[in-house]
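Help needed: design a sequence for this.
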């Protein structure tokens, strides 16, 4: 017989570990199944806007993350057309004491979540445990030799769980490649070292730069057109290739100096799920990239996964018996789909705006200056002000 209030989560990434903490707080026993044999420090930086940091603080992550995260108060928008600043957005109105705007290394956040999860007796982490076999039973789900009331797929854009329950729903290549790399802060001259988020808009490409790891490292993401790699894979990027791309496009010297400071680049093809995503079937639910992978141009990939985890736990926490699980997952989907779809579309539209060329780029820069930082920032309020 399926143990009462037992849940399995596939994936020990940010979404999966946040979901484990949220569900444990609701009284569930959670088993996290991770296919990797060990959790290594991978990835580069990420932005955690107030809608996400507010949730993490509630689960005790602020203390775990400590000084590794940087609280930023500005987003500076630059144009490659002239090399100058278009506008500077203040995050002061959005980022409050109870919900800062954090810049962090992905590995630091995962380590903080993992430490907190391991401190909870309700959470068990099983490494080297891929989810290969899923079988629906009379009162739950069997995952290998584990029987639970609910299975949650938090295993990324190439989700094994989604492949089982939604085999016809697959990510599609966006035509864009994210080149990701980091460098020591000291490797950049002081006059170009960012203190907050810096966004450079250019012809058919854009660059995002910001500090992380207590200010000791600088994170860079360059988005350019490219060819898809094998599904689910990334690859090293040749430093000369990315330098040449921005040289040929005649980007300003400061932007090219930042790009040249990175020694090791990785290339990530950007795959996206259809608008609306895929959410649940029976007693199986998806969250994060498994449900709704999107282009990262709203800086909400991690944020949406964290929100998913909190809403899913809220819905399941309201159930009184196992017979209400399916209805709870349906309610989770109804609550999340409209917001996530709106974020997917906004991210895609922002990418098009960032990559404008010629007269259209000039018009974009002029309109941004005329609107001013307050009205531009207000376009993000519906994202940042979200609360559970």
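Sure. Designed sequence:
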């Amino acid at each position: 017989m399926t143990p009462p209030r037992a849940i399995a989560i596939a994936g020990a990434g940010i979404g999966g570990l946040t979901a484990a903490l949220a569900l444990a707080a609701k009284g569930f026993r959670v088993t996290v199944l991770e296919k990797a044999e060990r959790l290594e420090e991978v990835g580069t930086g990420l932005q955690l806007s107030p809608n996400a940091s507010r949730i993490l603080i509630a689960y005790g992550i602020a203390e775990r993350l400590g000084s590794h995260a940087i609280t930023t108060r500005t987003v500076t928008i630059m144009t490659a057309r002239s090399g100058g600043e278009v506008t500077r957005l203040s995050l002061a109105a959005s980022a409050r004491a109870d919900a800062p705007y954090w810049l962090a290394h992905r590995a630091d956040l995962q380590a903080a979540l993992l430490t907190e999860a391991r401190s909870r007796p309700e959470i068990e982490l099983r490494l080297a445990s891929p989810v290969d076999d899923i079988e629906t039973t009379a009162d739950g789900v069997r995952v290998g030799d584990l029987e639970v009331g609910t299975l949650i797929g938090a295993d990324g854009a190439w989700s094994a769980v989604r492949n089982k329950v939604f085999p016809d729903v697959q990510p599609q290549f966006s035509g864009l490649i994210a080149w990701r790399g980091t460098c020591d802060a000291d490797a950049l001259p002081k006059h170009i070292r960012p203190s907050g988020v810096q966004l450079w808009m250019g012809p058919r490409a854009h660059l995002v730069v910001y500090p992380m790891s207590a200010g000791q490292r600088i994170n860079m993401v360059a988005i350019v057109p490219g060819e898809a790699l094998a599904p689910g894979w990334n690859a090293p990027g040749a430093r000369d290739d990315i330098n040449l791309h921005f040289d040929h496009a005649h980007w300003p010297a400061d932007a090219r100096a930042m790009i040249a400071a990175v020694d090791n680049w990785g290339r990530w093809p950007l795959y996206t799920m259809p608008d609306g995503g895929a959410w649940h079937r029976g007693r199986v639910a998806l969250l994060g990239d498994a449900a709704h992978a999107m282009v990262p141009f709203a800086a909400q990939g991690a944020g949406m996964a964290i929100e998913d985890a909190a809403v899913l736990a809220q819905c399941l926490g309201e159930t009184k018996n196992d017979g209400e699980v399916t209805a709870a997952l349906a309610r989770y989907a109804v609550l999340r789909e409209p917001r996530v779809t709106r974020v997917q579309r906004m991210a895609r539209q922002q990418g098009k705006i960032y990559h404008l060329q010629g007269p259209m780029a000039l018009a974009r820069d002029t309109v941004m200056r005329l609107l001013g930082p307050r009205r531009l920032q207000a376009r993000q309020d519906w994202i940042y002000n979200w609360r559970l």
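The chain has a mean pLDDT of 93.
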